[in-house]
Amino acid sequence: MHGTADSTVDCSHTHGLYRRCPEHLRREPYIMLGAGHDNLVEANPQRYFAALRLFVEETCGQPQQARDRPIAPVPAMGGV
């Protein structure tokens, strides 16, 4: 997961790690256009959690019942 506007760790690191990862362990990187180092969730919460859920399901597996349940809404970040 990486934002294209990350000024802390350049997005090229994600691509480099992906290329170095054994093919059977590779997962498509999640790249968020315009997101920085610490605002991937805020940039697009629905896309972020969908990508995270897919990654967890692909790497850990889940029983069918758990996959069919909706994801709980993300609480507002107001006042934080």
Q: Summary?
A:
The protein has 80 residues and is mainly alpha-helical.
Characterize the structure shown.
- This protein is mostly helical and 80 residues long.
- The protein has 4 helices and 2 strands; from the N terminus they run E-H-E-H-H-H.
- Strands 1-2 form a two-stranded parallel ribbon.
- The chain starts with a strand and ends in a 12-residue tail after the last helix.
- The mean pLDDT is 83.
Individual helix count: 4
Indicate the low-confidence ranges by residue numbers: none
Rg over C-alpha atoms, rounded to the nearest angstrom: 15 Å
Largest sheet descriptor: 2 strands, parallel
Number of strands: 2
Shape assignment:
flat
- The strand order across the widest sheet is 1-2
Average predicted confidence as pLDDT: 83
Tell me the β content: 5-15%
List the helices and strands and how they pair.
Blueprint: E1 2-3, H1 12-20, E2 31-32, H2 40-43, H3 45-60, H4 64-68
Parallel strand pairs: 1-2
